[in-house]
Amino acid sequence: MLDPVLARIDADMPHAIQRLLALLRIPSISTDRVHAPDCEVAAEWLVQDLRDMGFSADKHPTTGRSMVVGQGGQGDRHLLFYGHYDVQPVDPLNLWHCPPFVPQIEETPHGQVIRGRGASDDKGQLMTFVEACRAWIAVHGKLPARVTMFFEGEEESGSPSLIPFMEANRDLLKADLALICDTDLFDRDTPAITTMLRGLLGEEIVITGPRMDLHSGMYGGAATNPIRVLVRILSRLHDDSGRVTVPGFYDGVEELTPELRAQWEALGFDEAQFLADVGLSLSAGEKGRGVLESVWARPTCEFNGITGGYGGDGFKTVLPSKASAKVSFRLVGRQDPLAIREAFREMVRAMVPADCQVEFKSHGASFASVMDTSDPAFEKARTALSDEWPRPAAFTGSGGSIPVAGHFKTILDMDAMLIGFAMDDDLIHSPNEKYDVRSYHKGIRSWARILAALA
Ligand code: BES
Ligand code: ZN
Question: Residue ranges of the Peptidase M20 dimerisation domain (predicted)?
Fold first, then answer.
């Protein structure tokens, strides 16, 4: 059953690449309202592609970006594939070697790569299982299992419509198991099943001082400066050992079990290389914690953007009216995003002087998730992946957040398995994002094997 499907995948790669390039040309940036129509175009493209494969598929409008749901195949086993067709903004544009939405195939010392926004996160990954299904259907006339495809267009902007959509469409989405393709390989040769994801709390603080921007000579010394207020607050969110100072922040954070610590140590992760690859040499995590532990199993508070005053060319002696910062918390274990939001806001309010106002904007809140690896599907998938890649598959953690993983459990009582083929150097969310053609090809082959194993 499987071999002809794998052969078909190999033979069809040039077309599979062309289809991915077509999807990558659509600038479906979800966080930017200007690109809302492009997100609809991407959703329609996917609906059409699924219909071309014989799926019944529809675009489902929400108050934000549309959802795409397709149904195909038959059988006792019902699998749901999740991916997201939206992408991150492309700034800073001047650092791209090619226009982000004019994707290119490039030769590199590690082989060919597909370069463009969304190549890895998540259009390339999403197309791995679409292409695997296409090959099954082409060879056998039908899929070996019942398959639901579920593609979201708001993942990169906090998924505001996801929970209401899932709650309103339980029957449409409920399957035996969700398969999510939005994570990494452990390394070039070692596939991974990600069993832990961090949660995420996104908060924006806006501090307002004087009613309008002022001349910093006329008013400096007399008027409170919101940038000074803001940086003072931000500088107090960590202590000298790198721990976050928000009261109660570590409630629900547990130490690694000795078994998991040993498993991760056996992976032979090269901390120095991981840092060197991005031009660094010192870990900025909590003192005494290794890099892998800091990224996979410890919570953080990071500043993702900061505004205020004059940032343009040259110099301007302005004392601004407003300053703002985007702050995100990655969460682990049973940390409660809503409790942390309240504690954080309370702490900030207490540091704002009487003459300033503070306003908060919320950018999503999701719990961390830990997968139940006792489901036999995990061992089956592990074997299928090990058959495809040079080294056996590993169970890993991940520092990123994929809120839908938790919602599958809480809303649909469905376990999720996270398997992806991205690499640390794919530059997701950065200029020059890429996906290796090898990731794409072996990713498609991996899903064909997993489909065979799970059906
Ligand atoms: N694909 C990423 C998550 C990811 C990143 C998994 C790195 C494995 C390694 C996903 O699309 C993403 O970036 N999610 C956002 C979440 C969000 C709510 C904006 C994230 O993690 O920042
Ligand atoms: Zn993603």
Answer: 197-353
Q: How far is the CA of 76 from the centre of ligand 1 (A)?
A: 32
In a domain, 274, yes or no: no
The rounded Å distance from CA 290 to ligand 1 centre is 21
Domain shared by 437 and 337, yes or no: no
pLDDT single digits (tens) 289-314: 999 999 999 999 999 999 999 999 99
Residues 6+ apart with CB under 8 A from 251: 335, 336, 339
Q: Which atom of ligand 1 is nearest to the CA of 364?
A: 18
Per the CB < 8 A criterion, the answer to whether 139 and 5 are in contact is yes
Ligand 1 closest atom vs CA 328: 22
DSSP-derived 3-state class of residue 203: strand
What's the farthest any 2 CA atoms get from each other in the chain?
A: 80
179 DSSP 8-state letter = E
Number of domains in the chain: 2
- Tens of pLDDT, residues 240-255: 999 999 999 999 999 9
Contact 89, 156 (CB under 8 A): no
Identify any residues that bridge with 83 across adjacent strands, giving them in sequence order. 151
Q: What is the pTM of this model?
A: 0.91
Q: Interior CA angle at 119 toward 121 and 110, to 5°? A: 110
